[in-house]
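Predict structure. Chain length: 120.
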Amino acid sequence: MTEPAILARCIATTISRTRVNVTTEGAAHRAISAALTAAGIEHVNEARLTASERIDILSGSVGVEVKVGHSRRDIWRQLERYSSLPEIAALVLVTGTAFPDIKEVGGKPLTIVDLSRGWL
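Prediction complete.
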């Protein structure tokens, strides 16, 4: 079993090397899922964590949240909720929104992928 922080970095690297269509979250999500599948990274899309919490992608205990066009405050609140769950050991935020380089949320590793970099 891969250490969650290492798996999160692997996921982030895979995504950062992919040109992701950021016109909608759905398009971005599909491109990211396809990239993870092509890289051999097992994952579940739209994984139910609790009765009220569903994360975009779950790979082992690493949650991946895709956010296009949301406020940093809303994104942070969602990450805080996910980090409080025992099923999540690390998080990857994939966003087109400028976000501070924060390394953890709720005591759990956070890796941020800037979707605009894939187009540079």
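Summary: Residues 4-115 form a domain with the Endonuclease; Chain A fold (CATH 3.40.960).
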